[in-house]
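Researcher: We're reviewing a set of sequences before deciding which ones to prioritize for further study. For each one, I'd like a predicted 3D structure that I can look through quickly. This is Raffinose/stachyose/melibiose transport system substrate-binding protein. If possible, include the structure in token form so it fits the rest of the review sheet.
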Amino acid sequence: MNIFSKLAISAGMSLLLAAGVAQAQNKTFNIWWFELPDTPQSKAWTKALGELKAKHPDVTVNFELKTFEQLQKAGSLILNSDQAPDVLEYNKGNATAGLVASQGLLTPLDDQFKSRGWDKILNDNSTQLSKYDANGIYGSGPIIGIPAYAEFVSVFYNIDLFQANGVKVPTTLDEFEAALATFKQKGITPLSLGTVDSNGQHLLYTLALTQADDTWVNNYQGLKVPLDTKPFLFAAKKIVDWVSKGYISKDSTGLKGTGGADNLFSSGKAPMFISGTWNNGNFASSIKNFKWSQFVFPTPKYTVGSTGNLFVVPKGSKNKDLAYEFIDLALGKENQNEQANLGGVAIAADPAAVKDELGKRNVELFSNISGKGGLGLYPDWPVPGYYELLIQATTGLVTGSTTPEQFAERIKKPYDDAQAAQ
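Model: Here's the predicted structure for Raffinose/stachyose/melibiose transport system substrate-binding protein, in token form for your review sheet.
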């Protein structure tokens, strides 16, 4: 080999090396979630993202905050395009994660689940909403997402207003309605509500679960039989009754739960607000003028709630190894303890390491719910498009444009159509 050949090879290797370095330097890891910045989840995941950056200084980490509604409405289109990130938070359930899983848009995670030790952190109960069959029905099939927290709907209440008006924490539905009546007699609208987003349907499903047993919940969430509307009809009648008695304001139809009804509670104007643990961070930082706490709505067994939304890896992810590494960090004991001590419902925290009062309360309440198998999941999960339908139908109950019977009929047909198609 002559000197010119050696120089050419050397130059070629240098170009390849330079190209490789440039490629590494230009590598971008894209991650999305929709938890608001003040939530324990977002704070803990931001810390995990910082750890990932420190481990990979050659990688540009690009985080984007999305909204729940963005992904609810356009998830399939986004995941089926070159705009999909490397990993993102996605809503669990048949109508969302199940739908895109059935379309082949997500990466199966079974191998990673075992090789990375996630199976030592999450048990079968924790991963029932991570698995979807070919029809997108939860509970079996490949693992397509990993939860890193839990959540449940409870009643946030103003301790000061309860004490000032002689109201005790109710333990039955009758006692709850008596509390509503007491506040109304004192000129206080007792229940803050927003029907523009999921808040209204969480109240609806909470009331339906007062009439539900194991068979009904399993049939409803699993699309196993045509819809038995009796629990929903009961709930719809209660909402109409509560509006007529002034327990709920008709102005609720113009409010969101987040950024609307929650503000009525945190400002001290409403003594109660039925919503999820995603409010904890906001309330912990914004409520300064009164004492507040939570109690689980009195039902025989079931509470609206589940393990948290899933971290999913799109089929087209360009940096799957980094996506798996981020999930490692989010599931790690240090990050889980961090989340709990910020007031979150961590799925794998060490109870002895949780010192935060709010975090301890959430761990205790969630343990009581999950310990009796009482996670009733969410009402919009069984059928694609049910989220929007339930918002519209629940709003109709509050405005008076929809009767409880019309409500039940309206939600039955799409459910039965989806069930028959299985």
